[in-house]
Amino acid sequence: NAGVTQTPKFQVLKTGQSMTLQCAQDMNHEYMSWYRQDPGMGLRLIHYSVGAGITDQGEVPNGYNVSRSTTEDFPLRLLSAAPSQTSVYFCASSYGRSGNTIYFGEGSWLTVV
Amino acid sequence: SQELEQSPQSLIVQEGKNLTINCTSSKTLYGLYWYKQKYGEGLIFLMMLQKGGEEKSHEKITAKLDEKKQQSSLHITASQPSHAGIYLCGAGPWGAQKLVFGQGTRLTINP
């Protein structure tokens, strides 16, 4: 039972570098999302997807790009890393809408220097 | 847009004491989720509430949803060191899509 798997767990980037945070789920969930967690601010939605080929912006999408070519994978790309993107990133997935448990990955700790 | 306010933001209790964390919404609550996060780790699902008046319990943790007050409460009975962590409430009727979170409540249990 892998659930939601995120890689890498820790990453240090230099300003201006690009990278991809990987997220994979093996539960055949339709919905997947990326959140970032900053001190005192809870989790904020970056991008989400309701199925393969369909993505949309959340509350804080600037500087991030996503794609959903398969049901299982939902990578998050940082195009040109900035110190403001230092955060903890969580991927989540669920099957359908309300009433279903939302599963979260273990998080990716990203530091941009 | 919906906003969730958790109170208190930080809580320190003596081991064995009861405690309550509240989550108040700016709009009607549909699908309220409670998560626990250990420091530096991921989110652990605790409970999900959907209907006004609904109450669920798991071990020593009870969560209630008061639809009229647009509020949910999380009550821990006879707290233990294992209960320490950050408790987050999240809401939204769309599953993992567009979930809104409170800012979290940091719980410390003193022996």
Q: Topology of this structure?
A:
The complex is a heterodimer of chains A (113) and B (111).
Chain A: E1 4-7, E2 10-13, E3 19-25, E4 31-37, E5 43-51, E6 54-57, E7 64-66, E8 76-78, E9 87-94, E10 103-104, E11 108-112
Parallel strand pairs in A: 2-11
Antiparallel strand pairs in A: 1-3, 3-8, 4-5, 4-9, 5-6, 7-8, 9-10, 9-11
Chain B: E1 4-7, E2 10-14, E3 19-25, E4 32-37, E5 43-49, E6 55-58, E7 61-66, E8 71-76, E9 85-91, E10 100-101, E11 105-110
Parallel strand pairs in B: 2-11
Antiparallel strand pairs in B: 1-3, 3-8, 4-5, 4-9, 6-7, 7-8, 9-10, 9-11
Structure, explained:
- The complex is a heterodimer of chains A (113) and B (111).
- Chain A is 0% helix and 50% strand.
- Chain A contains no helices and eleven strands.
- Chain A has strands at 4-7, 10-13, 19-25, 31-37, 43-51, 54-57, 64-66, 76-78, 87-94, 103-104, 108-112.
- In chain A, strands 2, 4, 5, 6, 9, 10 and 11 form a seven-stranded mixed β-sheet that branches. In chain A, strands 1-3-8-7 form a four-stranded antiparallel β-sheet, with no helix packed on it.
- The model of chain A has no long low-confidence stretch (mean pLDDT 92).
- Helix content of chain B is 0%, strand content 54%.
- In chain B, strands 2, 4, 5, 9, 10 and 11 form a six-stranded mixed β-sheet that branches. In chain B, strands 1-3-8-7-6 form a five-stranded antiparallel β-sheet, with no helix packed on it.
- Chain A binds chain B through residues 29, 31-33, 35, 40-45, 48-50, 58, 90, 92-107, 109, and chain B through 4, 9, 30-31, 33, 35, 40-43, 45, 48, 50, 88, 90, 92-104.
